[in-house]
UniProtKB/TrEMBL annotation:
It comes from Cardamine amara subsp. amara. This is Coenzyme Q-binding protein COQ10 START domain-containing protein. It comes from the Eukaryota. Residues 45-194 form the Coenzyme Q-binding protein COQ10 START domain. Signal peptide: none annotated. InterPro entries: COQ10_START, START-like_dom_sf. The lineage of its organism: Eukaryota, Viridiplantae, Streptophyta, Embryophyta, Tracheophyta. PANTHER family: POLYKETIDE CYCLASE / DEHYDRASE AND LIPID TRANSPORT PROTEIN, POLYKETIDE CYCLASE _ DEHYDRASE AND LIPID TRANSPORT PROTEIN.
Length: 210
C-alpha cells in the first residue's frame, strides 16, 4: 500500500491523513479532537447505483458476505427509518476475539438528481452500543456517461459508480483511539470491497438471466 501523509499516531487536531491502497480504496482519517476521528473512504465499481442500493438495504444479508460482520438483524422499519442490531468481530493475537455491538438507526434518503448524475444516501447513527459516538453515511453516486467526478478523486474517473462511507467515531474511555482507528480502517476497507463485489455480482446475475 502506498501511504501519503503522517502515521496515525502523529495526527494533530484538524489534520487529515490520506491512505490510497493498490486495492483501489481511498481512506482519509481526520483527527477531530483527542479521542475522536472522522474516517472517509471511497471505492469505484462497475455496478449501477440501483445494484449497490439493493445490496446495502438488504440488511439481514449483509453478514452473509461482509467478513467481520457476524450479526445484522433488522429490528424495525418505519417509513424511511430502519433500526438495526449489528455485531462485528475481529480475530486478535493468541486466539482472542474483539467484539463490537451497536443498535443503529438508518435513514434512507430519496434519490437525488445531480447535474452530473444521480446520488442516494443512507445516514446512520448509533443509539446504543460500544462507542461514545458512531454516526455517518453511505453515499452512492452514479455518473452520467462522459462526465467526470470530483476533481479531488480523479482516481475514480474510470468508474461509473462510486461508494463513499463516512463515519465519525469516538470510542469508550477505556479503549485506545489509535487501536480503534486502525481496526476500523482495516474493517471499512474490507466492507467496501465486499459491497463492491456483491453489487457487481448482481449485475452479472442480471446479464446471465437475459
Amino acid at each position: 500500500m502506498s501511504i501519503r501523509a503522517q502515521e496515525h499516531q502523529n495526527l494533530e487536531d484538524g489534520k487529515t491523513e490520506e491512505l490510497i491502497g493498490d486495492d483501489g480504496v481511498l481512506i482519509e482519517v481526520k483527527k477531530l479532537e483527542k479521542s475522536s476521528r472522522r474516517i472517509r473512504s471511497k471505492i469505484g465499481m462497475e455496478a449501477s447505483l440501483d445494484s449497490v442500493w439493493s445490496v446495502l438495504t438488504d440488511y439481514e444479508k449483509l453478514s452473509d458476505f461482509i467478513p467481520g460482520l457476524v450479526v445484522s438483524e433488522l429490528v424495525e422499519k418505519e417509513g424511511n427509518r430502519v433500526r438495526l442490531f449489528q455485531m462485528g468481530q475481529q480475530n486478535l493475537a493468541l486466539g482472542l476475539k474483539f467484539n463490537a455491538k451497536a443498535v443503529l438507526d438508518c435513514f434512507e434518503k430519496e434519490l437525488e438528481i445531480l447535474p452530473y448524475g444521480r446520488r442516494r444516501e443512507i445516514d446512520f447513527k448509533m443509539v446504543e452500543g460500544d462507542f461514545q459516538l458512531f454516526e455517518g453515511k453511505w453515499s452512492i453516486e452514479q455518473l452520467d456517461k462522459g462526465i467526470h467526478g470530483e476533481a479531488l478523486d480523479l482516481q475514480f474517473n474510470d468508474f461509473p459508480t462510486t461508494l463513499t462511507y463516512t463515519v465519525e467515531v469516538k470510542p469508550k474511555m477505556w479503549l485506545p483511539v489509535r487501536l480503534v482507528e486502525g481496526r476500523l480502517c482495516k474493517e471499512i476497507k474490507t466492507n467496501l470491497m465486499s459491497v463492491r463485489d456483491a453489487a457487481q455480482k448482481v449485475i452479472e446475475g442480471v446479464i446471465h438471466d437475459l
